[in-house]
Amino acid sequence: MNSFDKYQELIAEERLKVIAQNGNNGEHYETNEAPKHYNNDKGSLYKVAKERGWNPYLFDIVKRLERSEKKGEFASDLEKSKFVIDLWLNESINTKK
């Protein structure tokens, strides 16, 4: 299994956790209330990323770091960030070959 496959597996696991936490009937998708860690009172991280020209790896890493303590999953989000950093590094190395 390559790094991209591992990342896809990680994303799939995260989706399953969301479904498990909120039930399989999709109730959490029908509400307009965002989770606390999605607070954009000071501006959207998506806007910042676009303005600064961030690539998807950088955006994902910064997003996880920014929200890690707010979500209460600090260690998990840091581990995911480390994983994405490794993916980015491996892709960068393989692209230069």
Describe this structure in words.
By secondary structure, this protein is an all-alpha fold. The chain is 69% helix and 0% strand. The protein is built from 4 helices and no strands. It has helices spanning 3-22, 45-52, 56-71, 74-96. Helix 3 (56-71) runs antiparallel to helix 4. It is globular.
Query: Into which percent range does the helicity of residues fall?
Result: 55-70%
- Tally the helices: 4
Q: What is the tally of beta strands? A: 0
Going by helix content, strand content and strand pairing, the class is mainly alpha
Beta-strand fraction estimate: under 5%
Rounded Rg: 15 Å
In short:
With 97 residues, the chain is mainly α.
Topology:
Blueprint: H1 3-22, H2 45-52, H3 56-71, H4 74-96
Helix pairs in contact: 3-4
Q: What characteristics describe this protein?
A:
mainly alpha, globular, 69% helix
